[in-house]
Design goal:
Blueprint lengths: L7 E2 L8 H12 L9 H11 L5 E2 L4 E5 H18 L15 H12 L13 H26 L5 E4 L4 E5 H9 L1 H19 L8 H6 L9 H10 L19 E5 L3 H4 L7 E5 H7 L3 E2 L1 H15 L4 H6 L5 H13 L4 E2 L5
Parallel strand pairs: 8-9
Antiparallel strand pairs: 1-4, 2-3, 3-5, 4-5, 6-7
Helix pairs in contact: 2-3, 2-7, 3-4, 3-5, 4-5, 12-14
Length: 339
């Protein structure tokens, strides 16, 4: 049975080397892997963007829900389709656009304003409606296909259940080589789109892929929660008192957004403008990691709906792995200067 038509697939729990995983990923990125659309690239990116949302099951694998996967899947395609007008499917003489393009274009036809907005700017109801449509339509066409290409060694799945089960060694491999895999995936995705799009929309196509996951601009809710609920009144890095009467209080991604590519309370600290600008896209030292881990352990036990949602699937060992592998990805260490 063709991979795209599979309804379930058992995770092959065999001992895999890094070279074997590289071989599987490189096959998917290559022209030898059959593709009519960019779904496989989109699914790989969605899984990579969701590594911190995985929940360890205690049996040597990590659970990742379809909702989490296809929310990222939708966000990643939003700008590509509606803002940049990039085709995602090779025409077969019958169908000109992929299912996700059809869903997003239909949503924009119902409301012209949608075309001008980032996905996160939509109402919660509108976002949920679009994600549900994408999940129902796309998962049956791509989850089995990528499973088959990866020989069942990346994840197992059942479309009747709520998600996939990532192999532990695959999870560690993707975390360790996250930056390299993202770049290779972007390059293969861009090469595919070059074959099916007109030259006028292909300007800076790699940049467009990088920007397809927009950074959330308004982090004020996290500033309020950290300051008012958890009384974080001092700069996390230099310790100076923060002045909340002006705009000098910054919400900083402890592990840079460029690596995590999401906004979660467990990765935010408050800092002064000077420290935030110095830190920029750098990784704090182990001294700060220890403080962060202790803070998060205290924070996750708070009985609060917002905090509970933000800390869903949080695990201190995973956070330490993110910190470790972000450094291996090439991000420079942040050294606190004398003020």
């Amino acid at each position: 049975m063709p991979g795209w038509n599979l309804k379930n697939g058992e995770l092959q729990k065999c001992k895999m080397s890094e070279d074997e995983y590289w071989s599987l990923f490189n096959f998917v990125f290559s022209d030898a892997c059959m593709k009519r659309n960019t779904y496989k690239f989109g699914l790989i990116k969605s899984i990579m963007d969701n590594l911190f949302n995985c929940a360890q099951d205690g049996y040597g694998s990590y659970r990742l829900s379809y909702n989490a996967i296809f929310e990222k899947f939708t966000v990643n395609y939003w700008n590509l389709v509606l803002k940049y007008h990039l085709k995602q499917m090779r025409s077969d003489g019958r169908t000109e656009v992929s299912k996700i393009e059809s869903i997003l274009l239909a949503a924009s036809e119902e409301n012209d304003l949608i075309k001008t907005l980032d996905f996160n700017s939509l109402s919660e109801t509108d976002r949920s409606n679009v994600v549900n449509q994408v999940s129902v339509a796309c998962r049956k066409n791509v989850v089995g296909a990528l499973y088959n290409d990866m020989e069942g060694k990346l994840y197992g799945f059942d479309l009747k259940r709520n998600g996939i089960m990532l192999a532990e060694r695959a999870y560690e491999f993707m975390l360790k080589y996250k930056t390299e895999l993202e770049k290779l995936n972007y390059y293969a995705w861009a090469k595919f789109m070059e074959k099916i799009n007109e030259d006028d929309v292909l300007v800076k196509v790699l940049d467009k892929l990088e920007l397809s996951t927009p950074k959330r601009n308004d982090l004020s809710v996290y500033r309020e929660v950290l300051y008012k609920k958890f009384k974080e009144c001092n700069c996390f890095y230099c310790g100076k008192k923060l002045n909340f009467s002006n705009r000098g209080v910054h919400v900083d991604h402890f592990i840079p957004w460029s690596y995590v590519k999401d906004d979660k309370l467990w990765n935010f600290v408050l800092s002064c403008q000077k420290c935030n600008e110095r830190k920029n896209n750098k990784i704090p030292s182990e001294k700060y990691l220890e403080i962060m881990l202790k803070r998060n352990e205290q924070m996750k036990d708070i009985v609060d709906e917002f905090v509970n949602v933000e800390f869903k699937n949080y695990d201190s060992s995973q956070f330490m792995s993110l910190w470790k592998y972000a450094q291996l990805s090439g991000l420079k260490p942040y050294v606190q200067e004398n003020s």
